[in-house]
Specification:
This protein is 64% helix and 19% strand. The protein is of the alpha+beta class and 273 residues long. The chain has 2 domains: 21-138, 2-Layer Sandwich (Alpha-D-Glucose-1,6-Bisphosphate, Chain A, domain 4), CATH 3.30.530; 155-271. It has a 6-stranded antiparallel sheet with strand order 1-2-6-5-4-3. It is rod-shaped and about 120 Å long.
Length: 273
C-alpha cells in the first residue's frame, strides 16, 4: 500500500514545484519591514543559495554579502528598463519542520545605496522583482534537482560498491568452506587408514601403538578444528547472504529514487518554455 501511495505524493510535490510562482511579501530586518518578492522552492537552503549564486554569477554579477543577504549590484530587473537596482537576496529555510522547503526573498534596493527603509525601491520595483524571481525559477529548480541527482547517484554508487564487496566476500568464504571440507574429508580418510594400521599392530608393540594413537589424537583435534571453522564460515556466509539481500533491496529503492529525480528533471525541461 505504501508504494501505491508514494506515487501520487511524489506527483503532487512535483506539480507543486512546477506551479510555484513568485509573490509579493514582506521581510523583517533589523526591526524594519521591507516589501519583497518571494518564492518557495522544495529544496534545502544551502542548495538553493548555490543555485541563486550560480544563476547570478553566470550572468556576470559579482556576489557580495551583507548581514543576512546575498547581494548583487547593478541588476536590471526589467530587460526593457535601463533602471538598475541592487538585488538583496535573503534565502532561509521555511521552518524547522520544513527543512527541505526554502523561501527566497528578493529585496530591490536603489543602486549603490546603503540598505535602509528609505533606500528600498517602490512597489513598481517589487512587481519587477516578482517577475525577475519567476525568470530565475527554472534555473533554480533545475540546479537544485541536478544537485539532488548527483548526491543520489553517489548514494547509489556507494550501495552498489557494498554489494560488489559482499559478493566478493561471499566467493572467498565459499572457497574457504570448500577447502576445509576437502581437508576434513582427507582427515577422515586418514583416520580410517590409521585405524586399520592400529588394528594391525601387535598388542605388545607399545611404542608403535603409542605413536599411532598420538597421531590419531592430532587427526581428531584437526577434525574438531575443521568442523568448527566450517560452521563459522557457513554462519558468516548466511549473514553475508542476508546483507546482500538487504543491500540489493536498498539499491533498488535508491535507484528508483534516482530515476524519479531524473524524470522530474526531464518533466521540468518539457514543461518550461
Amino acid at each position: 500500500m505504501r508504494k501505491y501511495l508514494l506515487i501520487p505524493i511524489i506527483s503532487y510535490l512535483f506539480l507543486s514545484t512546477l506551479s510555484a510562482q513568485s509573490y509579493k511579501s514582506s521581510l523583517v530586518f533589523q526591526k524594519n519591514t521591507y516589501p519583497v518578492a518571494a518564492i518557495q522552492v522544495p529544496y534545502e537552503e544551502g542548495v538553493v543559495s548555490d543555485a541563486v549564486k550560480e544563476y547570478m554569477t553566470g550572468r556576470g554579477f559579482k556576489e557580495a554579502r551583507y548581514k543576512d543577504f546575498m547581494v548583487f549590484r547593478s541588476v536590471p530587473l526589467d530587460n526593457g528598463n535601463a533602471l538598475l537596482s541592487d538585488a538583496y537576496f535573503n534565502i532561509v529555510r521555511k521552518s524547522r519542520s520544513e527543512k527541505d522547503m526554502t523561501v527566497i526573498s528578493l529585496l530591490p534596493v536603489k543602486q549603490e545605496a546603503t540598505l535602509s527603509p528609505a533606500t528600498a525601491e517602490d512597489s513598481a520595483s517589487i512587481r519587477l522583482a516578482v517577475i525577475y524571481l519567476d525568470s530565475m525559477r527554472y534555473n533554480i529548480l533545475s540546479y537544485s534537482l541536478k544537485q539532488q541527482i548527483l548526491a543520489q547517484q553517489k548514494t547509489v554508487d556507494k550501495t552498489k560498491a557494498k554489494i560488489v564487496s559482499l559478493k566478493n566476500d561471499s566467493g572467498d568464504i565459499a572457497k574457504k568452506i570448500r577447502n576445509y571440507e576437502t581437508e576434513l574429508q582427507e582427515n577422515k580418510t586418514n583416520q580410517d587408514k590409521l585405524t586399520r594400521e592400529i588394528n594391525a599392530i601387535a598388542s605388545g608393540d607399545q611404542a608403535s601403538l603409542s605413536k599411532a594413537h598420538h597421531k590419531m589424537d592430532r587427526l581428531l583435534d584437526n577434525q574438531t578444528d575443521y568442523e568448527k571453522k566450517i560452521r563459522n564460515y557457513k554462519a558468516e556466509l548466511e549473514d553475508n547472504s542476508k546483507q546482500r539481500e538487504f543491500q540489493q533491496n536498498l539499491f533498488d529503492n535508491e535507484n528508483q529514487a534516482l530515476n524519479g529525480l531524473k524524470q522530474r528533471l526531464q518533466n521540468l525541461r518539457i514543461s518550461t518554455p
